[in-house]
């Protein structure tokens, strides 16, 4: 204790290290090793397999972002969104509903889009709609819950994206969310990026300075995304092994608006695989869970699982994170109420 007191710099560094994702991963795995050693291998294998599956998306996104930075193409990307925000919101919501990405898999792309100047409104539209539906999920949902439920979820995905996108657009017009990223790096004002008059150099490897930028951007983004997603999947593994999804879902039985709202609130932090959810919810609906509550639970759970929230928190400022959760909860509740009425 005296050593820490006499060396405040060392204690500050130790405290900072304990707040990192690596520390969370180590503590979580040590806890499993001590309290439930029989499941340690299963938890580790689950997290590693999930991270390996997402790794292909991380690698592609990191390479693309490093390439765009090295070539100076971020100016072109930013120009593509000027004056087209409404159109981009519609396209983002539509394509987000068709993209075969879960919440965690879109995080690298969200980071790249925001860093390159894409409007937060369009990114939010894609962000909210993307994890809700894809072709395999649509077919599985239809098989377990029927086509009306599957089509309702697909419509809810697009509608939620549009709702979130235009809400953000309205708030941004009043000056909100000017700098959504935690580590915002403006381009062009400090000699760190291209100006509007510059043209991209697509063959960046011909210039040593641009090769250096590519290597630096690739390394920093790869480490940044890997550590947060590794922590996210360890947390997801703990939920899968120790918090049964059916036990959580059983808390939202009954009719009316209250079960729908409760289902959305429970679904936000609860892990629920999109391929496992339909059969599970079909059984719960047979036991008395309303269709509206099932829809709210499925929408809220897909929009923001624990792994997704952990990764999102690492990318954006708290007010943007809070807005994302607020839009997800309110959108899930509205989707459940409308589906129940129909």
TrEMBL record:
Q: Would you say which domain of life the source belongs to?
A: Bacteria
Give the residues annotated as coiled coil. none
Membrane topology qualifier: Multi-pass membrane protein
Alphabetically sorted, this entry's keywords are:
Cell membrane, Membrane, Transmembrane, Transmembrane helix
- Keyword Electron transport on entry: no
Please give the start and end residues of each transmembrane region: 20-37, 57-77, 89-118, 138-168, 218-242, 248-272, 293-315, 321-339
Compartment(s): Cell membrane
**Gene Ontology cellular component terms for the protein in this record:** plasma membrane
- Protein family membership: Belongs to the UPF0718 family.
Q: What PANTHER family does the record tag this protein with? A: UPF0718 PROTEIN YCGR
Know the name of this protein? Answer: Permease
Q: Which organism is it from?
A: Falsiruegeria mediterranea M17
What is the phylogenetic placement of the source species in the record?
Bacteria, Pseudomonadati, Pseudomonadota, Alphaproteobacteria, Rhodobacterales
């Amino acid at each position: 204790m005296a050593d820490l007191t006499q060396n405040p710099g060392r204690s500050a560094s130790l405290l900072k290290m304990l707040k990192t994702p690596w520390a969370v991963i180590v503590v979580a795995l040590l806890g499993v090793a001590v309290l439930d050693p029989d499941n340690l291998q299963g938890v580790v294998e689950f997290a590693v397999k999930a991270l390996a599956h997402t790794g292909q998306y991380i690698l592609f996104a990191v390479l693309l972002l490093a390439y765009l930075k090295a070539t100076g193409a971020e100016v072109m990307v930013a120009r593509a969104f000027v004056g087209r925000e409404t159109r981009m919101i519609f396209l983002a919501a539509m394509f987000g509903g068709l993209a075969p990405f879960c919440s965690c898999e879109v995080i690298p792309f969200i980071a790249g889009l925001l860093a390159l100047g894409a409007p937060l409104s369009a990114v939010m539209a894609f962000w909210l709609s993307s994890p809700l539906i894809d072709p395999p999920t649509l077919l599985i949902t239809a098989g377990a819950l029927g086509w009306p439920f599957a089509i309702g979820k697909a419509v809810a995905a697009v509608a939620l994206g549009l709702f979130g996108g235009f809400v953000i657009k309205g708030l941004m017009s009043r000056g909100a969310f000017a700098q959504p990223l935690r580590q915002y790096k403006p381009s062009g004002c400090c000699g760190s990026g291209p100006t509007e008059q510059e043209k991209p150099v697509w063959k960046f490897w011909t210039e040593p300075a641009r090769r250096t930028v590519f290597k630096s951007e690739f390394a920093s983004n790869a480490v940044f995304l890997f550590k947060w997603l590794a922590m996210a999947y360890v947390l997801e593994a703990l939920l899968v092994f120790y918090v049964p999804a059916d036990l959580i879902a059983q808390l939202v039985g009954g009719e009316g608006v209250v079960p729908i709202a409760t289902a959305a609130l429970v679904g936000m932090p609860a892990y629920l695989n999109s391929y496992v959810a339909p059969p599970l919810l079909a059984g719960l609906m047979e036991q008395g869970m309303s269709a509206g509550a099932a829809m709210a639970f499925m929408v809220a759970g897909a929009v923001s699982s624990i792994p997704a929230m952990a990764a999102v928190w690492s990318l954006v400022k708290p007010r943007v994170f809070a807005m994302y959760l607020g839009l997800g909860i309110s959108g899930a509740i509205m989707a459940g109420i409308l589906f129940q009425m129909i």
